[in-house]
Amino acid sequence: MKFLHTSDWHLGRAFHRVDLLDAQAAFVDHLVTAVTEHGVDAVLVAGDVYDRAVPPLRAVELFDRALHRLADLGVPTVMISGNHDSARRLGVGAGLIGRAGIHLRTDPAGCADPVVLADEHGDVAFYGLPYLEPALVKDEFAAAEVSHEAVLGAAMDRVRADLAARPAGTRSVVLAHAFVTGAEPSDSERDITVGGVAAVPAAVFDGVDYAALGHLHGCQTITERVRYSGSPLAYSFSEADHRKSMWLVELGAAGEITAERVDTPVPRPLARIRGRLDDLLADPALAVHERAWVEATLTDPVRPQDPMARVTARFPHTLSLAFDPEDRDEAGPGSYAQRLKGRTDQEIAEDFVAHVRGGGTVDAAERAVLRAAFDDVRADDTRQERTR
C-alpha cells in the first residue's frame, strides 16, 4: 500500500506580514496532483490543519475545497487534529464526511478505532491519535501522571490491544501529533511543554509498522518507521535551510517500509543575511538573495540611518530587520530576547523567583508549584480554544 504522509498545513497562517493563503492553495493543488501521479492509496494528515482554533473564513474555504478534491479522487484520507486545531470544530460532521472517504480523527476516546483499508496483501489499520493535552486526557486514559509520555503511551497501549485482536498479518499505521525525543524543532512550533517535559521516546510507537508524525516543521527520520513529514511551507526563518516535502511511503506485504520525499512548491526562498549594512549592500555574493524573503541582521557598531529603506532597496522582500552590534561586550548580558532564547517558561520563572529573592536556587517544592501553575494555564488555554 502506498500513502502520502503530510502534516502541519497551518491554513490561515501568515509569514511575518505576508499572507500565505495563495501558497497554501498551491500546496493543495500539488498534493492532489501527487496523489494521482504516484498512484497513492491513502493520504495522511498528521495534525495542525489550521493555524488556530478559530481560523479565518478564507482558510476554512480552502480546507473545504481540499476535502472535496480529495474525495473526488476516491482516495481515502485520514486526518487528525493537532495542538493548533480546535479538535471539536475540526471534527464537526466527521461521521458524515467519513462516508466520502475523509476520515477525521479528533476524539481521543476513538484512538483505537482504526480506518481499515485493504490491498492485495490484506488489511492495513490506520489509527488516528489526535493531539493529546495531558491535563485534559489523563482521566480518559487512566494515565499514571500528567505527561505527554504517559498519555501517549496509554493511547498506544489501546492501539496495540486492538491490533492484537485483528487477523494475523494485519499491518498498522499510526498518525500522531507529538514531540519525539531526538527530533529537531524550529522557531515556528507552539510550545507543548507540560510538567517540564514535552518529548516522548520513539519507543512509544513500538509494535506498529509506521508512525506518521506531525508537530515539528522539519522533515525528519527518527527511525525507519517513525518519521516527521514537516510542514509543506516555511513558517519561520529558522526553516531557511529546510527542504519542504511530503513522505511517499510504500508499505510492503510483511510491513517493510520504503519511503521517498516528494518536494512541495516553494513560493519564495528564505535567506538570513548578517553583516554591516554597507557590506550587505555591496556584496555581489548576496545577489542570489535579492528575490528571497530576507531576515537581515545588521552588525554596525552604530545603528545606521534609515536601515530598512536601504536594505529593501537591494532586498525588496526583506521581512525582518535586527541589530546585533559587533563590538558589543561578549561578557555582557546581551538583549533581553537573547538572554531568554532557548529557555523554557519554567526556567525563566525559576530564575525570576531566585532574582527577586536576592539569589539562591529554587527548591523542589517551589519548582513543583511553578510547574503545576504552568500546566493549569496551558490546560485552561486549551479548554478556552476548544469552547470558543
TrEMBL record:
Keywords: DNA recombination, DNA replication, Endonuclease, Exonuclease, Hydrolase, Nuclease. CDD domains: MPP_Mre11_N (cd00840). GO terms for molecular function: exonuclease activity. The keyword Transport does not apply. Residues 1-218 form the Calcineurin-like phosphoesterase domain. Residues 267-355 form the Nuclease SbcCD subunit D C-terminal domain. The keyword Hydrolase applies. It comes from the Bacteria. PANTHER family: COMPONENT OF ATP-DEPENDENT DSDNA EXONUCLEASE (PTHR30337), NUCLEASE SBCCD SUBUNIT D (PTHR30337:SF0). NCBIfam families: sbcd (TIGR00619). Belongs to the SbcD family. SbcCD cleaves DNA hairpin structures. These structures can inhibit DNA replication and are intermediates in certain DNA recombination reactions. The complex acts as a 3'->5' double strand exonuclease that can open hairpins. It also has a 5' single-strand endonuclease activity. Heterodimer of SbcC and SbcD. This is Nuclease SbcCD subunit D. It comes from Streptomyces antimicrobicus.
